[in-house]
Amino acid sequence: MARDFKLIFSISILLLLLDCCYGGKVGVCYGRSADDLPTPSKVVQLIQQHNIKYVRIYDYNSQVLKAFGNTSIELMIGVPNSDLNAFSQSQSNVDTWLKNSVLPFYPTTKITYITVGAESTDDPHINASSFVVPAMQNVLTALRKVGLSRRIKVSTTLSLGILSRSFPPSAGAFNSSYAYFLRPMLEFLAENKSPFMIDLYPYYAYRDSPNNVSLDYVLFESSSEVIDPNTGLLYKNMFDAQVDALYYALTALNFRTIKIMVTETGWPTKGSPKEKADASSDNAETYNSNIIRHVVTNQGTPAKPGEAMNVYIFSLFNENRKAGLDSERNWGLFYPDQTSVYQLDFTGKSNGFHSNSSGTNSSGSSNSWCIASSKASERDLKGALDWACGPGNVDCTAIQPSQPCFQPDTLVSHASFVFNSYFQQNRATDVACSFGGAGVKVNKDPSYDKCIYITAGGNKTKATNATALTSSASTPRGNELLQWILKLCLMISLFFSLQTMNSQAL
Predict the structure, then answer these.
(1) Could you tell me which of 350, 379, 384, 360 has the C-alpha nearest to residue 457?
(2) What span is annotated as the signal peptide, if there is one (predicted)?
(3) CA angle 464, 465, 466 (to 5 degrees)
(4) What is the pTM of this model?
(5) Are residues 285 and 431 in the same domain?
(6) Which of the listed residues 442, 463, 492 is the one where a domain comes to its end?
(7) Could you say which of 191, 225, 264, 307 is catalytic?
(8) Beta bridge partners of 26
(9) Among 119, 275, 285, 319, the one annotated catalytic
């Protein structure tokens, strides 16, 4: 029994750590509200040609599920809103559905998520609080009965309308009218380690308020930032601001461990005359290319820098049967004849990416530091310091009593060390040294005595091996190398543990 426990524990730790090593993933939504679309088998070939590894569909069509069989593509399937009533009322209905509509294709078809309902709070025909969570629970129960509840995650997709406030991001709050639905749903997600799935469209924010929102800001092309006055964080694109608003809304309800997955985002290539937004192929290519690079390089958001996120681009094809304005029918990456509407590189390595291959920061200097501004007020410094040591995830041990950077025991000195730590951990960008104006970049090393200020490149006057390792790990290549080494060490350790347990058993 003890040996069995050790084995199970070792495998659990291995899987947990390996899961932490994965970076952000980019998928695509495969909607079928259109005429003259290719057959599902041809669609799968198209997806494979473009190296797309993650796909979301909105139902459980048998021909589509069969077409994805014997591929390595991970599939997210959906329970349509029209099925929610039946799924919420009867466990036997769901058991039968799973047996007849899903299991015949699994695991040949690699189904990893089931979405129960889509943007149900926006559907006037659906009582979200009555149907969605009970249906989710019944789907989970059905999966548990066949031993698949840990392999296939259950969630539901929502729109940004679930928030009553989204700006500034730190004031993000859920709409109180959805309280009866939200809390049980969030409890379900937290208990089962399922993601909070959201459909995000900065395009609509720009379309509806073009005089207040800049096009560059929503396209990830802005050279200026929008500041969150409560945190001092600077936002260079609307997508990050919307994601962080959701994180803050979750935190306000004490759901800090739930991860966010963006199950739809994109940009239309055509709009009607009534739409003032720039719906065009050029803007669609710019937005989608930038969101892909943002995800695959694990940039994270200002509130959660470096955190991996999964994002699905909407949509694979234009869907001419959709109602509404012209933009509703023109989000596709491909025409029905499978030619590209515009070029999109799902690896995030296209030439449009302004990579910083020289290893220097945005100021052009290979060594720069961030310290507290002498012009900053005590209130601003304290607020920024508290934020950095809390939500900013900076290790502030060094400024504690008896530690190397405690003396001089002043707010400016402590804030300077912490500001620099946050700055270097986030690739030494200008944004990471803002702190609402309380931070300032310098080119002279502020290190003193045993208090060492790190640099992003790992090059510093008094560098230690441990600090150099931390700095190199802040780059994508450093992360990949460390992740690979960690995986290898864990697998070797598990192998020898198993060998030892087998020897003891004999």
Answers:
(1) 360
(2) 1-23
(3) 90
(4) 0.69
(5) no
(6) 442
(7) 264
(8) 311
(9) 119
214 φ, ψ (degrees, to nearest 5): -80, 145
In terms of domains, do 225 and 291 share one? yes
Please say whether the beta carbons of 32 and 42 come within 8 A: no
Asked if 371 and 424 touch (Cβ cutoff 8 Å), the reply is no
Active site residue 264: yes
What are the pLDDT tens digits along the chain (506 aa)? Answer: 444 545 444 544 444 444 444 568 999 999 998 888 999 999 999 999 999 999 999 999 999 999 999 999 999 999 999 999 999 999 999 999 999 999 999 999 999 999 999 998 888 777 766 899 999 999 999 999 999 999 999 999 999 999 999 989 999 999 998 888 899 999 999 999 999 999 999 999 888 888 888 899 999 998 878 888 888 899 999 999 999 999 999 999 999 999 999 999 999 999 888 776 688 999 999 999 999 999 998 889 999 998 899 999 999 998 888 888 888 889 999 988 888 898 888 877 654 333 333 333 333 345 789 999 888 888 889 988 988 898 778 889 999 999 999 998 889 999 999 999 988 888 787 778 888 788 888 888 888 888 999 886 544 333 332 222 233 333 333 444 455 555 565 566 655 655 555 555 55
Domain boundary among 442, 461, 486: 442
CATH number of the domain where residue 177 is located: 3.20.20.80
